[in-house]
Amino acid sequence: MSNKKPYNPERPDKDNREWTRADIGKARPASEVMPGLTGAKGTDELLRRGRGRPPNEHRKVNQTLRIDPDVLEAYRQQGKGWQTHINEVLRQNMPKHDK
């Protein structure tokens, strides 16, 4: 059994009442309200960052690779980071091309 109370969005909250159209009309951007804490420029950077994770300059490629089940299981048994470990082993054994 769980001691958690069921989520009930219809339950009124006296500390955080539902906004009316008038409340929304009077609302100000956070950058106007918070400049004393972080500065106007800092606030804009905090609140206007892009969506999702920042892009990595060394992006990985999603590739299907067929591996024997026993080999795959041996790497998975190593726990967290097993895919990174496979990548390191492949990098160490990459064929060298002389041009």
Description:
This protein has helices at residues 21-26, 30-33, 35-38, 40-47, 69-76, 82-92. The chain is mainly alpha-helical. It has a domain at 66-94. It is elongated, with a radius of gyration of 26 Å.
Protein traits:
mainly alpha, 99 residues, 41% helix, elongated
Number of helices: 6
User: Spans of 5+ residues with little confidence (pLDDT < 50)?
Assistant: none
Can you summarize the main beta sheet?
A: none
Mean pLDDT: 81
Structural class: mainly alpha
Strand content: under 5%
Summarize the structure.
This protein has 99 residues and is an all-alpha fold. It has helices at residues 21-26, 30-33, 35-38, 40-47, 69-76, 82-92. It has a domain at 66-94.
Topology at a glance:
Elements: H1 21-26, H2 30-33, H3 35-38, H4 40-47, H5 69-76, H6 82-92
